[in-house]
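Order emerges. One example.
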Amino acid sequence: MMIPVVRSLLETDLYKFSMWQALLHSHPGAHAEYEFLCRNTPVFPLAELADEVNAQLDHLCAMSFADDELDYLRSLRYMKPDFVDFLAVFRFQRKFIQVEVVGETLAIRAVGPQVHVMGFEIFVLYIVNELYFRRFDQPGALAEGRERLLDKIASLKAFGLQPGLRHPFEFSDFGLRRRFSAEWHDEVVLRLAAEVPQYFKGTSNVYLAKRLGTVPIGTMAHEYMQSFQAFGVRLRDFQKAALEDWVQEYRGDLGVALTDVVGMDAFLDDFDLYFAKLFDGLRHDSGDPLLWGEKALAHYAALRIDANTKRLVFSDGLDLPTAFSLYRHFAGRIMTGFGIGTNLTNDVGLTPLNIVMKLVRCNGQSVAKLSDSPGKTMCKDETFLAYLRQVFHHPA
C-alpha cells in the first residue's frame, strides 16, 4: 500500500507561491521546461524509485487546495484575490511531467505552460527524498537526529547576546525540499519554535506555517530571474526587468532580492539606487559569503544608504556554527537572517541527497544561472552559456 508523501498542496516553499503569482500576472503564456538532477552519488540508484515516484505523482495530480488553505493564502496581504481564485480551480496535470529510467539515473522532466509546471519542483524533490530515506533504518536515524537537534538547541540557548552587535540573531527553516521525512520536519520545527522562539522566526513550508501559526518565509528563487532571459527584453537587461516586475507586483512586500543568477558583481551593476531603496535586502545562495556580504555593504555605502536599514539573508548550505560566524562578522553593520535547510531537517547521520529540479528552457530557449559557486550551473547549451558569460563579463 502506498503511503502518500504529499500531505497538502500548501506544503511547498512560500517563494513558489510568490513567484507563481508574479508570473501569472506578468507572463501567463510562458512555456517552461524543468529537469531533475542528483549532484552526488546515492547509496543505491535512484532509478529504483521510478515506480514509486510515478505513483506519488499520480496522487499529487489528484489533489486540490482545501477551502481553509485558500483562506489562509488570502490572509497573506501580498496574495492577490485573483491568484487565490486561480488556485481554487488548479490541479497539477499528469501529462506535463514524465519519469524515466536512464541506466541507473532517475530522469524527471516537467514541460508545459509555466504556471502549470513550475509548482512541481518542491513536491518532486521531497517525494524523491522521502522515498529514498524510507529504505534506511528509520528508528536509528531519528534517534541520531534527536541527539543532534538537542545539541543545536543547546548551542542556541548558549549563544546569548553578543556584545557590540547592533542587530539580533534570527534564523528560519528552509529544509522542506531535502527533509528526511514529514514527521521529522514537523518535530524539528515544533521543537525550535517552542524552545528558541527568540531566534527561530519561521519556515519556508507554508503548510507548517499555517499549522503552527508561525511566519512563512521566502521571496524569490533563481527560476523567476532566469525566466526573464527568455521574456523578450534585451539579455543585458533581464535582471532589471525581473526586479521591476517584482516591485510592481508586491509594492514593498517580499523585498529580499536574490543576487547570484549571473554573479554578484553583475547583479550589483543592475541594483542601482532605485532598486536598493525599494528592496529590503539581498539573499546569498552561492560563493564566498564573507566576500559577498562585504560587496553588498560597499555597494550600500557607495549609494549612501544606511546599511542598518537593510538585511543580508544567507541560505547556502548553512549550519548553525557557520551562521553564528557570519552573524558575528556582519551584525554590527547590517541586519542579518539565516535560512538553514538540510542541516535542520536531514541531519540524522545519513548522507543527504544533493538533488535539484531546475528551469532549463523557457519559451523555447535556454536559460541559465552563472553561479558564484563552481558546479551549480545547470545548462546544456554551451553556446548560450558562452553568450551569457560574455554579456555579463562572467569568468568561465
